[in-house]
Specification:
Shape: globular
Largest sheet: 8 strands, antiparallel
Number of strands: 12
Length: 334
């Protein structure tokens, strides 16, 4: 979050309860954080903590990275475009898709510079290990994004060896796009887990960017934002996979564009420009789905036609187990 040398800075002091972990009749744990829900007019409908706090958006920024790539020539079928904005499970379709993107660039997985890793999904990891394979770049959850970065470089005539350098034309374009979509000038950067440059923004800025991307198919249908939004909404299985909340929610709500990120980040936008973003301060993953669903509820996101209410309900709470059976729940604190 903000200044690493100041553990009592504003990000900690102003955080609000986002989720309770209830065991039996007692609240066992509390997840603090910062959250904003924006109405279609861009004004906050709900604010918890300090949504203006600066933080690392982690992989939730991938749709913005994909927008920058489309603006500089990336052109893929929707299924593969969704993979360009993905933190995928490493399932067979994901690995095959990343290889297909590389093939479009005339490259193979040897051109990737992301961090080698096992597949993220438990089933995919088990199958990968059973086949005698270890951590590889192609199975790492960001391989679709990195393959798309390489294809963008080939299309634009940029060097592919140095595509992760902060001063590379691709990364400069992404930096500019992140600042534009979020409305927050990028002043701080680091390196993400996959090795790509990572640009800081605010919780409100992240929500603002998702609002713009998700609304683009209606407001600006020929734009790069619309191209990315349509692909993600049409192929949520490529954005995450398996039973991940990101995939479940995008399947359940027509036109929803959602993306999770490491260390407690989640953001989502609706076709009319309503949007949510939040940061769980302790980086925990377990409260993400209940918090997102409850925040979207505050926006009336599930009131329209075509919503799969059963799927949404499955994410409202997570079971807390005792002796293998539910004895409590993780639920939103607001």
């Amino acid at each position: 979050m903000t200044r690493a040398d100041s553990p009592n800075d504003v990000s900690t002091l102003t955080a609000a309860p986002l989720a309770h972990v209830v065991r039996g009749e007692l609240v066992e744990s509390v997840h603090l954080g910062h959250l904003v829900a924006l109405g279609a007019d861009g004004e906050p409908v709900l604010e918890l903590g300090d949504p203006g706090v600066t933080m690392w958006p982690r992989s939730s920024v991938k749709p913005f990275q994909a927008v920058a790539m489309v603006r500089h020539g990336l052109d893929l079928p929707d299924r593969l475009m969704a993979l360009a904005a993905a933190s995928h499970n490493g399932e067979p379709d994901h690995v095959a898709g990343a290889l297909a993107i590389l093939a479009c660039a005339g490259l193979d997985e040897g051109a990737l510079r992301n961090t080698p890793d096992l597949p993220w999904g438990s089933t995919a990891m088990r199958d990968w290990l059973a086949a005698g394979q270890g951590p590889e770049r192609i199975s790492q959850n960001c391989s679709g994004k990195h393959a798309a970065m390489l294809l963008t470089c080939v299309t634009a005539g940029w060097d592919t060896e140095t595509y992760l350098q902060p001063d590379h034309p691709l990364q400069r374009a992404i930096r500019e796009t992140v600042g534009e979509l979020t409305g927050v000038p990028v002043t701080t950067e680091t390196v993400d887990g996959c090795g790509a440059p990572l640009f800081a923004t605010t919780v409100t800025g992240l929500a603002r960017g998702f609002a713009r991307v998700a609304a683009a198919p209606t407001s600006d249908p020929e734009s790069a934002e619309a191209r990315v939004a349509r692909a993600m909404a049409a192929h949520p299985d490529m954005v995450a996979g398996g039973q991940r909340p990101t995939t479940t929610l995008m399947r359940a709500v027509p036109g929803l564009v959602a993306k999770d990120g490491a260390d407690g980040i989640f953001a989502a936008g609706l076709p009319d420009g309503r949007a949510v973003a939040f940061k769980v301060l302790d980086g925990g993953e377990r409260p993400l789905a209940p918090v997102l669903v409850t925040a979207l509820d505050a926006l009336g996101a599930f009131d329209g036609d075509g919503v799969d209410h059963e799927a949404v309900a499955s994410l409202r709470e997570r079971d807390v187990l005792g002796a293998g059976r539910p004895v409590g729940a993780i639920r939103a604190a607001f």
